[in-house]
Amino acid sequence: MTDKSPENNFPAGYVPPEVWTWEQGNGGQFASINRPTAGAQTTKELPVGKHPLQLYSLATPNGQKVTIMLEELLAAGHTGAEYDAWLIKIGDGDQFGSGFVEVNPNSKIPALMDHSTPEPTRVFESGSILVYLAEKFDAFLPKDLKARTETMNWLFWQMGSAPFVGGGFGHFYAYAPIHIKYAIDRYAMEAKRQMDVLDRHLADNQFMAGKDYTIADMAIWPWYGKLALNQSYPNAGIFLDTKTYKNVVRWANELAERPALIRGCIVNRTSGELSGQLHERHDASDFDTKTQDKIAQQAKA
Ligand SMILES: N[C@@H](CCC(=O)N[C@@H](CS)C(=O)NCC(=O)O)C(=O)O
After folding, report:
1. Would you give the DSSP letter of residue 170?
2. 125 close to ligand 1 (CB < 6 Angstrom)
3. Rounded distance, CA 151 to CA 52, Å?
4. Distance (Å) from CA 133 to ligand 1 centroid
5. What digits encode the pLDDT tens for the residues 97-123?
6. 4 CA → ligand 1 middle, Å
7. CA torsion, points 241, 246, 252, 254, in degrees to nearest 10?
8. Ligand 1 center to residue 125 CA distance, Å?
9. Could you tell me the domains of the chain?
């Protein structure tokens, strides 16, 4: 039986009011950017580079899905997938600039503009961007209806499931100002359940949709592949004992060796080793000359 007496609540004595009101600061670490309203907060145009595809993003798992896809397309010879990747610093509120909101009214990275269509086409939501690019270049989305449907099954699974890992487990384990056992238990259980879903599936399948590497793998790897390899929230892989999901670990390691995936993961990255940070990408040669370690060396010379 649960005892909902106010003294058992956290903070003790808290009773939810009849109507919730926003107290600035109740977003914890994200208090400066989280608020209960949408729309532009500043007037700011977005830059536009020389390539057909203009990406506005940051190397979070949702951003990495798209840069992995773009690098995979280029590696597969789709030269029309050349892109400029502009850095959107979500901690500074860049996603609330008027130009960004025109591309994504939801104010979240990643957001893409395709300037190769008669009128520029906006694409937002990482899953929608992956499908858009797969259809545009006829790549990484099987044509056979059964395999295509299986790809979509897992892509939609990822889009619906990862918020429990990111907004749920990751938030309460890594970001919340205090550790709340109830919240961590609830979301750790769900994160492990999802890892088990993947593990059982990958026991009989090389890739998420079967024998072919698809956009479903690209969507799932940055969230669950990294968690399996303990490259997600600090120590989260150990906390969730993800090494026990052997099939996920096998799949995650296989994908981690793909040069295009490695490149995709460092575009718009602003943390970690300097050699793994390419803040903006405007040309394939930027990987050799414009990572933060190279910029630091050039500044010293
Ligand atoms: N469902 C969206 C989620 C995108 C998302 O949550 N983006 C986060 C970074 S991973 C963001 O831009 N957050 C900024 C904010 O909440 O203001 C997608 O997959 O594109």
Report:
1. I
2. yes
3. 26
4. 19
5. 999 999 999 999 999 999 999 999 999
6. 34
7. 150
8. 8
9. 53-137 (3.40.30.10), 145-263 (1.20.1050.10)
